[in-house]
Each structure stands twice: as C-alpha cells, then as structure tokens.
Amino acid sequence: MYRRTRAEKRLAISAIGLALVLACVTSASGQTTEGDTFKMTLNGSFGVSYEDSFGSNTDSNHGLGMVANGTLDGYYYNPNFLAFQVRPYYDRSATDSESQSITRGSGVDSSIRVFGGSHFPGLISYGKDFSSDSEFSIAGVPSVLGNSSGTTFSIGWGALFDGLPKLYANYQVTDSTSTLLDTTSQSKSLSKNFNLSSNYDLAGFILNGNLNHYNTDFQSPSFLTAAAISDTSSNTNYSVTANRLLPLSGSLGLGWSRTTSENGSSDSSTDSYTASASFVPWRRLAVSESFNYTTNLIAALAQSLGGGNISPFLNNGSNSNAMYMDTVATLLMGNGLDLSAYLNHRIEHFQGSNIEDTQFGGSFNFRKANHFLGFLYFSVGLVDTATQEGNSGAGLIANLGMTHKFGLWETSADFSYSQDVQTLLALVTTSNYNFGGTLRRKINPETYWSASFRESRSGLTSQQGNNNSSESFTTSLSWKKHAFSGSYSRSIGAALLSANGTLTATPLGSIISNEFLTFDARSFGVNASTLLFRRVTVSGGYAKVSSDTLQQSLGTYNHGDHYYARLDLRLRKLLIQSGFDRAIQQASVVPGGPQVVNTFFVSLSRWFKLF
Fold first, then answer.
1. At 552, is the secondary structure helix, strand, or coil?
2. 544, 524, 540: which is closest to 586 by C-alpha?
3. Is 379:409 a contact under the CB 8 Å cutoff?
4. Could you tell me whether strands 574-587 and 82-95 are parallel, antiparallel, or unpaired per DSSP bridges?
5. Are 99 and 81 in contact (CB under 8 A)?
6. In the structure, how many helices (H) and strands (E) does the chain have?
7. How confident is the model at residue 22 (pLDDT cuts 50, 70, 90)?
8. Which of 14, 308, 332, 568 has its CA 20 to 30 A from that of 4?
9. CA angle centred on 406, ends 401 and 409, rounded to 5°
C-alpha cells in the first residue's frame, strides 16, 4: 500500500496551515487590511480521521490524521493587479467515471495572476498531488492498480503593446511517478517545456511565429514494457505562418516549420513548407487548393500521431520526403444538400523507393433537421487511385448520423467508414470504421435509464494483423434515491512509446519504429448508491482491470480487482465518512503471487465559511 512520506504530509499540512493562518489574520483585521486593498475569501471543510491498512506484504499500519478541503482566494489592491487562489486538500475522495473506483488524494493547487489588463500580464501556478487506489491507463483504458504522485509548475508572461508584435512566453515543468500496488516497481517521467509565440498584423498579413522546446526524461516500468526502458530526449519546433484575405471571399496561407529531435540513440529533423488558397467565386461554390512538402516523411507522420512530441524510438527517416497537392471544390445545392469533388496528388521518396499516385473522387452530403426527422445527416463518396503501375482500385467513404426523440425515448447514433483514402504514407492502404450511439428513457417521473456504446477499428490491409480497435459500453439507472451504473471498455492493437513514456496507439508501429509493442487492455466496473433517511448515502462498487503487452519476444500481463464500500452521513455542516477498500493486483514481473491491500478509514469534518 502506498505510504505518504513525512515530506508529503508536511506539504499538505503546510498548505492547509497557510490557508488557516491567512484566514485568521484577515479575520482579526476585519477581513481587510491596508485601507481595504487586501481582500480574501475562505471556505472548506476540516476534520480528523482514523485509517488502518494491511496487506499481503505489510502488517497493520494505523493512526490518526486529518482531512481538509478548502479554497482560499483573494486579491491585493485590485483583481487585475494581483489575484491569487490556493486550494489545499488532504484525503479528498473522487469517483473515476471509467470504472467507478474511489481515488483518495492529498495535495495543493495554487495560482497567482499579476498585472492583468496591463502590457505585461503574468500567471504563476503550482500543483502537487498524491493519489492512492489509482489506476494507470493503457490507450485510455484503466489497466493497472497502484498509486501515483505528480508536480506541475508553470510560469507565463506576455508583452502586449499597440502597434508592436504581441509576445507570449511560457515555461512549465512536470514530473510524475506511478507505483505498482504494494511494490517498488515504478514509472517516472520529467518534462520541461518552453514556448515562445508572437503575432502581428503587417500590410494586411496576419503573421504568427512560434518556438517550442520540449525536454523529457522517462523510465517506463517493467509491468508495462516487460523490460524497463529509460530515455532522455528533446524536441525543438520553429514555425512561421502568414495569412491574408483575398478577393472573392478568399484567403491565402503560407507556412514553414522545422522540427529537430535529439535522443541517446539517434537524431532527426524535418522541414515542412505549406501553401493554401481558397476562393468563393459564387455564393454556392467554394474552391480550395493546398500544397505541402516535408523533408522527413517518417518524422512528420510520428509527429502527427504523438501530438507534436516525437517519440525517441522513431526510425531515422532522413532518407524520406514527400510532396502533396490537394484541390477541393464544394457546391451547395440547397435544402441541406451539397456536392464535393477533390483531386489529390502525392510524390514520395521512402527507403529508396519512389512512389507517386493521384486520387480523385467525389461525394454528396445531406444535413436536415425538422420535427419529423429530428436531425439527420449522411454522406457517401467514391475515390479512385492511380499509380505509376496503373489503377489500384476504388475506395469508399460513408457517414451517417441521426438524433431523434420517439415519445419518451431519446436516441442518437452515427456510423462512418472509409477505405483507400489518402494518408501521409502512400505505400499502405488504410481502412477504418467506427459507430456508436446513445439511448435514454424516462420510464416514469422518478426513474431514468441510459446506455451508450462506441466501437472503432482501423487497419492496414497491406499488413495483416497490425490494426487497432477499441470498444466501450456504459449504462446507468436511477430510481428515486437509488442509482446503478456499469461500464466496460477494451482497446487492442499496436502502440509506440511517446516522448513522455506513455503508450500512443497506432497501427503503423512496425513502419515507423522497431520499438513498438502490441497490447490488449480491458476494464469492467459496476457501482451502486442509495440515499437513506435524507442524510445517509451508502455506495459501493467493483472494478476489474487487466492488460497484456508484448514487445518482440518479451511479454507481461497484469490483472487487478478493486472493491470499495462507503458511507456518508451529513448533519447540517457536519460530515461523517467511513469506507473500506480492497485492492488485489497480480503482475507477471512481480514474484510471490497477487498483492493484496486492505484499507479502512473513518473521518469527522465540518464545513466552514470564515469570510
């Protein structure tokens, strides 16, 4: 079981103590000081608690503590001159929407705003959090039980003058540590991000410049990647864009960006040049043209998958480049119907091969909302691809969606499918589809039921078995003062370690990196609660999480069960809480069988509003 260190306890106690001391000082001074230039408000709860925990690897560990949750905010002289907020919390409980498990945390969030509305506005923020009974996610699915801690510090400033370029700067440091339940197996990450941006209007052009530098140091745990992996890397991105309005309701856009990536194994860089123009020669007709050239196709692809931070395990793609030219025309027919046609041309050099193809196609789209249909939209299109070897076949695009109310039933659903549609990489054929919907029903004035479902699949038909899929289902039922809910989710496919050590799902794993792994993550949870005697809330639930990963010949599996029960009693401003948690986690990398941790707690707290 996760144990709070003395430093962690002192941090939470100090934050809460600071808020209380400031509150007492302000209260003693009639809530204002220095000629009514210093003002604050404080509210929250404070109390005592008793906790006992024991497990398969630990003896009973019990003791008295405190619980607190408050908000202190205020300003000096004027809210635009200096405003602040401090939110300390200790043993705060929160419900996770995915599996309905209970996470208990301690820490503090704080921020200071200075010189708001002036030429030099600034913001400083700091946050520290320690969470127990938390769940680590793989591709968005809770998969491993454990505990976590993290710190975030950020400082931002601006320089804003009329007639001069506006300048914004921000620096942020983030670190996090996650520990497998009742073990020493950890994942760690530390990132430092500096961003500098500016914008300016010059001779009708809107100019934007950006510099972003990202450093990261991470250690991926053995329970995730079979063997512990650590890496230090950095990414730097420079970009400049220019936009200008043109006649015929048109616009012109020009851009350049350069990204460099450095890590212990290899370095890479990519330059990208873009140009686009659009016109509306007739109120029903819009035409657009775009051009893009990139000097490193693999790096550009990985950057689009990783949100801008290139994975340090990317294959060196310095011998690849690509050029794209796209033309699109849209004609509005009226009554919700429009037609579109497009022509795309790609020229790529990849791993010694020259690839060139042309795609052309069209689609019609319909959108309509009225009392009879509710809201309905659909589109159907065809695309044909021709390469230097000849015609490679036709593809299909289809989208369908609707929302409608049938008596007491509220429904919504959507479906989309695409095959042989242009992507960044011309040497693979892509196909994907996703569909889902929601259903709501008011059974009677005191009873409501709802359910939702979503499934998506993506694949590369030229690489059998290298695809990604995910599915999720949730349902809830409320009757008078009782509530029931359940959820299920699963994600399976190939993934790549990102720059901060997390997994980014991508079906292109084997193409862009040799360090990709395959995963299968699942989560299931149920939850129930009821209100008794208007004052007593009783709740409980169960969550089951599991994951399997395979990287080359190394594989891991993790399975966990989490049970919880809780009772809340409210008597005016007094709150009495008690709860029991039982967590069981088995990991293939940890010998000795399942790890079991049991925790019982009871607390007494009171809500205050001092001023």
1. coil
2. 544
3. no
4. unpaired
5. no
6. 4, 30
7. very low
8. 568
9. 90
Which domains can be identified in the chain, with CATH numbers? 228-417 (2.40.170.10)
Encode pLDDT of 187-199 as tens digits: 888 899 999 999 9
Q: What residues have CB less than 8 Å from 66, skipping those under 6 apart?
A: 13, 16, 46, 47, 48, 49, 90, 91
Task: List C-alpha distances in Å: 293 to 33, 297, 321.
Answer: 62, 9, 8
What residue type is assigned to position 393 of the chain?
Answer: G
Mean pLDDT of 22-38: 49
Which of 116-130, 545-559, 591-605 is predicted least confidently?
545-559
Q: Token pair of 352, please? A: 């010694």
pLDDT for 565: 93
Pairing between β-strand 390-406 and β-strand 409-419 as defined by DSSP bridges: antiparallel
3-state SS class at 509: helix
Average the pLDDT over 78-98 and give the result.
73
What is the pLDDT, as a whole number, of residue 464?
52
| 565-574: average pLDDT | 90
Q: Are 297 and 425 in contact (CB under 8 A)?
A: yes
Q: For residue 163, give both structure tokens.
A: 């007639």
**Cα angle 286, 288, 294; round to 5:** 165
Cα angle 100, 101, 102 (rounded to 5 degrees) comes to 120
Taking residues 124-140, report their average pLDDT: 79
Structure tokens belonging to residue 374? 């509710």
Q: What are φ and ψ of residue 351, in 5° steps?
A: 50, 50
Q: With 80 as the cut, is the pLDDT of residue 599 above it?
A: yes
The number of C-alpha atoms within 13 Å of 583 and in the hemisphere containing its C-beta is 27
The three-point CA angle 51-53-57 to 5° equals 160
Mean pLDDT value of segment 391-405: 82
How many other C-beta atoms are found inside a 10 Å radius of the C-beta of residue 508? Answer: 24
Cα separation of 177 and 536, whole Å?
Answer: 36
Burial 199-217 (b: 16+ CB within 10 A, else e): eeeeeeeebbbbebbbbbb
**Strands 337-350 vs 353-370: parallel, antiparallel or unpaired:** antiparallel
Task: Label residue 3 by pLDDT band (50, 70, 90).
Answer: very low
Q: What span, in angstroms and rounded, lies between the C-alpha atoms of 61 and 54?
A: 6
Q: Whole-number mean pLDDT of the chain?
A: 81
The CA-based diameter of the chain, rounded to the nearest angstrom, is 85
For residue range 200-228, what is the model confidence (pLDDT) as tens digits?
A: 999 889 999 999 998 888 877 777 776 77
CA distances from 360 to 211, 293, 301, 418 (A): 37, 20, 23, 15
Q: Token pair of 111, please? A: 């921020």
Q: What angle do CA 219, 195, 87 make, to 5 degrees?
A: 75
Model-level pTM? Answer: 0.79
- Determine the Cα–Cα distance for residues 218 and 189; give it in Å rounded to an integer: 4
CA 60/CA 69 separation, integer angstroms: 27
Q: What whole-number distance in Å separates Cα of residue 149 and Cα of residue 131?
A: 6
Residue 521 vs residues 345, 492, 504: alpha-carbon distances, Å: 38, 6, 13
